[in-house]
Design a protein that fits this description.
Layout (H helix, E strand, L loop, with lengths): L17 E5 L2 H4 L12 H6 L17 H14 L4 E5 L2 H4 L9 H16 L3 E7 L5 H4 L9 H16 L5 E6 L1 H10 L12 H23 L3 E7 L3 E3 L4 H16 L2 H6 L5 H6 L8 H7 L5 E5 L4 E5 L8 E3 L17 H14 L4 E5 L18 H19 L4 E7 L18 E4 L4 E4 L1 H11 L4 H4 L1
Parallel strand pairs: 1-2, 1-11, 2-3, 3-4, 4-5, 5-7, 6-8, 7-10, 10-11
Antiparallel strand pairs: 8-9, 12-13
Helix pairs in contact: 3-5, 7-9, 8-9, 9-13, 14-15, 15-16
The structure holds beta-D-glucopyranose.
Length: 457
């Protein structure tokens, strides 16, 4: 090596690393009932007055259903080599089961082909919160039959796409489905109940396991689950705060991964749900405890945690961190938490391959992009610091294989409607014009230099 040979960068990522972005069907597609699609629970929820801020719906969203070509070209132009998106169950099976809607399937077929033509690896999420309304009418995640409804739906997609798609995720953030949808009622189906969350959780897990079994029969590539993890740090060393932190961690971080990897729920669950907690048959855990090929981790923030008798169900709450930067969704920016949570998964579950399947931030951007573009320094710093934190985990031996920024586009942020912008590409909702923000150009540079640009920023 001569003296002037360039030093390898402090932030070098492996050649095989996937650099992508993530979206979900209901949040970007629009045209929810087009070409024979059935109604989803989110369509119904968003059209129920009072459920979504400003009465926003996904009727048009980013109009990705018609502008997908442009969006794929955008990914390519930014240099991404991967894209995580979800399939709308009710486009493919309008009633959730039974008759197939070929036109719905054809939409995703064209999308997959276009991605591959542009050298972008697809990662398909089978379920990102939009359930066929017809299945919700039969109890949705509360009906034990949903495990085989889901596996049947999954099988159709495996047969259609596994020749071209290498990465599959069963569920996106099952914890949010139970906590937001069945405990607090702020997300579809909008139920407020202490008894429903453990049942919905268990059926989500059974559905996940049944889909993995179906994949082993049909598929040749990789399948995993996507969870949202938020490291919990005790606010003090008091016994009460330490116990509260363990409950909060069990509830959010271990409730789904322990059954998948260890074949049992965390002990704290019975204490958390009290009489609402159930004992399930041992054979359910055989279904759930399938070996998976990767874990997808969605990371946004941490929680400094204290005992709080009024905070149900886990009797733990978050201690505000007034000196920290917060995003528009009031989440503390805490990059170190990403390294910590990646190391925690590696230690607890035997260092499985992992992808960061979502990471990103909502910060204010104007509704119309100014002529000279959009400068979003806070989002750029967020990405830089979290990518550095991801790199630190790699250096400590975590088997991290890729990073997907949330999100490619500003989009329908569930109950917040269009009021929160997470995109690295700005969307003007009046014209549907896409404008890459400074954060997109930054991410593109990081990708082109395989991480080296993280040093300079
Ligand atoms: C979800 C996304 C959501 C994002 C930001 C995740 O919980 O998977 O659908 O838009 O976080 O809130």
């Amino acid at each position: 090596m001569t003296a002037d040979t360039a030093k390898p960068s402090r932030f070098a990522f492996p050649d095989s690393f996937l650099w992508g972005s993530a979206t979900s069907a209901y949040q970007i597609e629009g045209s929810p009932l087009a070409d024979g699609a059935g109604m989803s629970n989110w369509h119904r929820f968003a059209h129920t007055p009072g459920r979504v801020r400003d009465g926003d719906t996904g009727d048009l969203a980013c109009d990705h259903y018609r502008r997908w070509r442009e969006d794929v070209a955008l990914m390519r132009a930014l240099g991404m080599n991967a894209y995580r998106f979800s399939i709308s169950w009710s486009r493919v099976l309008p009633q959730g089961r039974g008759t197939l809607n070929a036109q719905g399937l054809a939409f995703y077929d064209r999308l997959v082909d276009a991605l591959l033509e542009h050298d972008v690896n697809p990662m398909i999420t089978l379920y990102h919160w939009d359930l066929p309304a017809a299945l919700e009418d039969r109890g949705g995640w509360l009906n034990p039959d949903i495990a085989h409804w889901f596996a049947d739906y999954a099988q159709i997609l495996f047969r259609k796409f596994d020749d071209r798609v290498r990465l599959w995720a069963t569920l996106n953030e099952p914890w949010v489905v139970t906590d937001g949808g069945h405990l607090h009622g702020v997300l579809a189906p909008g139920h407020r109940s202490l008894f429903e969350p453990p049942i919905a959780a268990h059926n989500l897990l059974r559905a996940h396991g049944a889909a993995v079994q179906a994949y082993r029969a049909e598929g040749r590539h990789e399948i995993g689950i996507v969870v949202n993890l938020e490291p919990k740090y005790a606010a003090s060393d008091s016994e009460a705060d330490i116990a509260a932190t363990a409950r909060a961690e069990a509830y959010m971080n271990r409730q789904f991964l322990d059954p998948v990897f260890l074949g049992r729920y965390p002990d704290e669950m019975a204490e958390i749900f009290g009489e609402a907690w159930r004992r399930w048959p041992a054979q359910d855990f055989e279904t759930i405890n399938q070996s998976i090929d990767f874990v997808g981790i969605n990371y946004y923030t941490r929680a400094v945690t204290k005992h709080d008798a009024r905070a149900w169900p886990e009797r733990a709450s978050r201690v505000p961190q007034p000196r920290a930067t917060h995003t528009e969704t009031q989440w503390e920016v805490y990059p170190q938490g990403l390294t910590d949570v990646l190391e925690w998964v590696a230690e607890r579950y035997g260092n499985p391959p992992v992808y960061i399947t979502e990471n990103g931030a909502a910060f204010y951007d104007p509704p119309v992009a100014p002529e000279d573009g959009i400068d979003d320094p806070l989002r750029m710093a967020y990405l830089r610091d979290h990518l550095r934190a991801a790199h630190a985990a790699l250096e400590r031996g975590v088997d991290l294989r890729g990073y997907f920024v949330w999100s490619l586009l500003d989009n329908f942020e569930w109950a917040h409607g269009f009021s929160k912008r997470f995109g690295i590409v700005h969307v003007d909702y009046a014209t549907e014009k896409r404008t890459p923000k400074a954060s997109a150009r930054f991410y593109s540079k990081v990708i082109a230099t395989r991480g080296a640009a993280l040093e300079m920023a």
